[in-house]
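Need fresh eyes. Consider my entry:
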Amino acid sequence: MEGEYLVEMRAIYKSFGEISALRGVDFAVRPAEVVGLVGDNGAGKSTLVKILTGVYEPDSGEIWYRGHRIRIVSPAHARSLGIEPVHQFGSTVDELSIWENFFLGREICRRIGPVRILDKGKMKEITRQTLEQLGIILDSLDRPIGTLSGGERQAVVMGRAVYFGGDLLVLDEPTSALSLRETERVLGYISNVRKMGRSVILISHIIRHVYPVADRFVVLDRGIKIGDFAKEEISRKELEDLIVRGRLEAERI
């Protein structure tokens, strides 16, 4: 692999008992790049990113981040480095407002004499500005987040990750439960995250969703990397055919 990378994973192996989930996988992401991590179910996609986000440790292999070899020991450690998993809806509280969800656990306070109070005005303004950068304008930030559409909630979660220092956002099947219209909106938000200078790993088995927005595609099949292509090197159909061939070969075994 050549060039400047934000993160590199080299020769990653991971087994669970007798099952080999990853077998010598190389994976890398450049700054301000969207990488589609694709493959059929059971290909090893989620295992690879769980290693990157500190959920698992690899059995062997190396992880390099910003040119330094590192050992990611926990999800909190990954977040401190700027590696942010973006969960579809699990990290929001339906009954709380949009701005309260944006700053959940990281509230901004100001002092009035000896008393610290929430700086609601500042938090609302930061939320508004960040969401506008992603391309979403809401009529009120005081609405419960549970009243938003799936795509809008995704934007809030992505905006929160970017604002709090996420240099690499990891999205696992973000469009799987969305309508076509909502999917197009989320893909637009992902493009805007890249324009803000952040990188994205977009995990999906639905190629028609990931192909329009990704700059590069890494294909896994049964724990092995079988392809690494810039978008101009492979068509959507060729990418789909490659995944299908891997599945058919697995069924013959």
In short: The mean pLDDT is 90.
